[in-house]
Amino acid sequence: MNRTRRLAILTVSLLLLAACASGGDESSPATDAPAVTTPAESDDAHGEDDHDHDHDHDHDAGQSGTSPTSQGFTILPATAAFDAGYSGEFAFTVVAEGTETAVTGFEVHHEKSMHLIMVNHELTAYLHLHPEMDADGVWRTPVAFPVDGFWRVVADFVSDGKTVLLGTDVVVGAQPMRMSNFTEEIRTAQSGPYTAVLSGDTAHEGSRPLKVTFTRDGAQITSVNPYLGANAHLVAFSPALEYAHMHPNDGFVDGTMTFTAPALGHDFYKMFLQADFDGEIRLFEFVIEGK
Q1: Is 90 exceeded by the pLDDT of residue 251?
Q2: Which CATH number fits domain 188-289: 2.60.40.1930, 3.40.50.1100, 3.10.20.30, 3.40.50.2300?
Q3: What is the pTM assigned to this prediction?
Q4: Higher confidence at residue 3 or residue 37?
Q5: ∠33-37-38 over CA atoms, to 5°?
Q6: DSSP three-state, residue 283
Q7: Which of 7, 37, 55, 248 has the most CB atoms within 10 Å of its CB?
Q8: Can you say how many angstroms the Cα of residue 255 is from the centroid of all Cα atoms in its chain?
């Protein structure tokens, strides 16, 4: 693929991101994924005892994922538009900013070299995927979009010792964007027989603890299975689709998980919590107002 076409792909992704932020028109898909490679670097795997913390690269203190380019990296989706009800492959490449060179040196972080977070702009559908990178530096993963519309895609990874969050948008079908207008908090969430209750508040000026307790049929749960290098994963999206990814500070303490929430703005945030109960990953959804 020549340089002109690669630049066209990047332009499509950037235009779609801008259009989604302003409720603009649909964008046409790019058709090919770039496949320029550099020598691969070795993964730096963590031991089993790291599942509660892995703090070396945690980004619990901030939020981002709103730009396709950050810290010298750019995400290029192979396709930026999908048919309605699309189920198939999602592919993308991470390139060095301002070049055509695919980055292939990624470090293992929470048991995976790449965490791909997808959420629709209404914040009602959520996917947490783990693509595999091929020899050309192209990441690929199966995906089945549960709803049509605009989707924010966040690539969450560590490269050369840096935690990087890259965000871009794709569209599924031809539905216009409709941002959810949350007007009240949702502090209790249900997943099958399990109930999760979120307590604590956020603060605009700094980080604050958020606590989660779990019960099953009324009985308190005090342990879960490790999942992706942590006891749980809590992801928050702002109305502007800023992304924050949190992990429990110390696992369970007196039957409670405690997360450190970053400083959040004065708005309602959608939060997605995933944890492993008896070998099954459960998803709990909350809405919390930034104070």
Answers
A1: no
A2: 2.60.40.1930
A3: 0.67
A4: 3
A5: 150
A6: strand
A7: 248
A8: 27
